[in-house]
Amino acid sequence: MKLVPSSYRRELFAIGLVLLVGIAAAALASSRDADARPGPTSVIPNGSYGVYKPARGEYVYFTVRNRKVRDLEFQIRIVCQASDEPTAEERFFTGGARAPEGRTVPANGKLILNWQEDGGGRWGRVHTELKFGARDVANFGVIVPEARGDGPDATYESCDGVSALRFNRGFELPPGAALP
Question: How big is the CA angle at 35 (ends 30 and 38), to the nearest 5 degrees?
Fold first, then answer.
């Protein structure tokens, strides 16, 4: 009698099926865990925050109470181009008086604010991003659309500027000093 060697097809099929089901179950479980876990939450202590860069003339100052930002004030450099001038000039845009008050910083630590404001005689659109985390940064962008100045010989002028300022918690000005 002659013996026929056994086939391993059934065993290999069973092993492959078990591996495939295991991989599918692991993928399904990991996607559920990712949805169930909240993202990282930034800790934002109450207090005053800010920075003043006298060499550049730029500053930012605001307070935080219960994750809500209030009393935002800032000044950044912008570049203005007049329609009748060949060169652009640097100027300052000072703002914050019309900034949205009491906005809550989201759990990811990044608060985005957009508003329009008159900053030093120029009506501009302001975009602000306050990021809390390992490096606290205030990013500002200002666009002043082309507008005609005052007077009969006034020309059209447009301005824009961006700035990134790393701020510190516990920022206070010396007694008697005021921001420019």
Answer: 120
64-71: which pairs have CB atoms within 8 A and are 24 or more residues apart?
64/105, 67/104, 67/105, 68/102, 68/103, 68/104, 68/105, 69/101, 69/102, 69/103, 69/105, 69/111, 69/113, 69/130, 70/101, 70/102, 71/96, 71/101
Domain boundaries, the chain: 47-169
**d(C-alpha 59, C-alpha 50), whole Å:** 7
Q: What angle do CA 136, 142, 146 make, to 5 degrees?
A: 175
Percentage of residues in the chain having pLDDT higher than 70: 77
36 band by pLDDT with thresholds 50, 70 and 90: low
The number of beta carbons lying within 10 Å of the beta carbon of residue 97 is 10
pLDDT value of residue 173: 63
CA distance 63 to 98: 15
pLDDT in tens, 115-169: 999 887 788 899 999 999 888 999 999 998 876 656 666 667 888 999 999 999 9
Closest to 60 in 3D by CA, of 124, 126, 105:
126
Whether residue 137 contacts residue 109, with contact meaning beta carbons closer than 8 Å, is answered with no
Q: What is the per-residue burial (b if ≥16 Cβ within 10 Å, else e) of 113-134?
A: beeebebeebebebebebbbee
